[in-house]
Amino acid sequence: MIRLLIADDHAIMRDGLKRILEGHDDFEVVGEATDGFQTMEWVRKGGFDVLLMDLSMPGKSGVDLIKQIKAHAPKLPLLVLTMHEEELYAVRTIRAGASGYITKESAATLLVEAIRRVAIGRLFISPQVAEQLALSLMPNACELPHTKLSDREFEVMQLLADGMSITYIAEKLHLSVKTVSTHKTHILQKLDAHSLADLIKYSITHDLLLKSL
Q1: Could you identify which of 57, 101, 186, 203 might form a hypothetical disulfide with 90, taking C-beta atoms 3.0 to 4.6 angstroms apart as the criterion?
Q2: CB-based burial of residue 20 (10 Å sphere; 0-12 exposed, 13-18 middle, 19+ buried)?
């Protein structure tokens, strides 16, 4: 029996996942979390074998939450289930410690296989993500500027490009306004951008804009 924790702030999504899983005798959903804080409470408590986690939840979320989870429970299989396309976050989440990455659009067809695979300690990633990981390890790989951003800088860049204010970003990511402003400066430098308009144009060109939840 594979015991599962579902971490997603949308009740409809959690219910949909449970409907997909309830027809399989080897799965049991033992808990649900709606934000990063509840997820960490479950991780500290234990009692489950695989964590299904959305990237975008209230409080701590995304790559930062994955790193925190893996620091506390390094052997816990963590399967990212998100609306974000693979090109945006897959490599970053795998590097942070996730065991797999699938989009919510493909959940109906891939979820069961993905859970069973990560539950036995294996990775579940697409050939495209595997190629991205391999290329990123090549010493002379040609990298786009945004791939050189830190995970936090990448997160701030997407929120800036999505039209969010520095104050809003600071509140959302639990950072100071000064820290977000510093991230913005570094992001513009790394992207060779001179203004927020340049950053938005870059994000559109490389399909990095966040999609509405």
Answers
A1: 101
A2: middle
- Cα separation, 178 vs 176, whole angstroms: 5
Q: pTM to 2 decimals?
A: 0.72
CATH 1.10.10.10 in the chain, residue ranges: 145-205
Options 3.30.420.10, 3.40.50.2300, 3.40.50.720, 3.30.565.10; CATH of 2-136: 3.40.50.2300
CATH topology of domain 145-205: Arc Repressor Mutant, subunit A (1.10.10)
Structure tokens at 55: 């990237």
Closest CA to 65 of 177, 171, 174: 174
The pLDDT score that the predictor gives to residue 110 is 87
- C-alpha 56: how far from its chain's center? 7
Mean pLDDT by 10 residues, the chain (213 residues): 95 91 92 94 96 87 90 96 75 90 84 94 82 63 75 88 91 89 93 90 82 46
